[in-house]
Amino acid sequence: MTKRDISIAFEELVYDELPADERALADMAMEATERSYAPYSRFRVGAAIALDNGVLVPGSNQENVAYPSGTCAERSACFYAHARYPEAKFVKIAVAARGTDGEFTTEPTAPCGACRQALLEYEVLAGHDVPLLLVGRDTIYRLPSVRSTLPFAFSEF
Ligand SMILES: [Zn+2]
C-alpha cells in the first residue's frame, strides 16, 4: 500500500492587494450578484470570466421553482461565455456572493462540485491553468487553477 497526499497551495489576500485586472473582474462578479434571481435560497451569487479576447463575461445564479432546473452563477457565466465567444480561451474567473442578509459574505464562497466540473472543461480547452478568485468582503482566495479545486477530476483530456 502506498499513502499519497494531495494539497492545494493558494493565496489569501484582501481587495486592495489585487492588481487592476483582477479588481475589475472581482468588481464584475460582485456587481453580477445584483442580477441574481434567487427567490428561494436568497443566496445571491455572481461570477465573472475574463477571456483572452479581452471580454469580461458576468453570470449570476438563476433559480427555478423546480430546483434542479436553475443554475449557478459560475455555470451561467461559463456557458454563456462559450456560447457567445466559442473561440475565446478562459483566462481567469471570479466568484462573489451575498448571504441571506443581502451583504457580501465576509469569507470566500467556493463553486459547487458541478460548477467545478463545468469550469474544468473550459480550463482544459484553454490549454493552461485558469486561476480562480473567490471574493469575500474581508478575504479573497486566489486559487491557481480550476483543477486544483477538483482532485480526481473526471476528464477525457
Ligand atoms: Zn455551482
Brief sketch in words of this structure:
The chain is an alpha+beta fold and 157 residues long. The protein contains 3 helices and 6 strands.
**Which structural category do the helix and sheet elements fall into?**
alpha+beta
Mean pLDDT: 97
Please state roughly what percent of the residues sit in beta strands, choosing from under 5%, 5-15%, 15-25%, 25-35%, 35-45% or over 45%: 15-25%
The CATH homologous superfamily corresponds to Cytidine Deaminase, domain 2
Radius of gyration: 15 Å
Count of folded domains: 1
Strands ordered across the widest β-sheet: 1-6-5-4-2-3
Number of helices: 3
Give the termini separation: 28 Å
User: What small molecules are bound in this structure?
Assistant: zinc ion
SSE blueprint and pairings:
Layout: E1 11-13, H1 20-32, E2 44-51, E3 56-60, H2 73-84, E4 90-98, H3 113-126, E5 132-135, E6 140-143
Helix pairs in contact: 2-3
The chain binds zinc ion.
Structure, explained:
- With 157 residues, this protein is of the alpha+beta class.
- It has one domain: Cytidine Deaminase, domain 2, CATH 3.40.140.10.
- Helix content is 25%, strand content 21%.
- It is built from 3 helices and 6 strands, in the order βαββαβαββ.
- The protein has a 6-stranded mixed beta sheet, with helices on both faces.
- The longest helix is centred in the C-terminal third of the chain and has 14 residues, at 113-126.
- The structure holds zinc ion.
- Zinc ion is lined by residues 72, 74-75, 111-112, 114-115.
- The site of zinc ion has 7 residues, from helix 2 and helix 3.
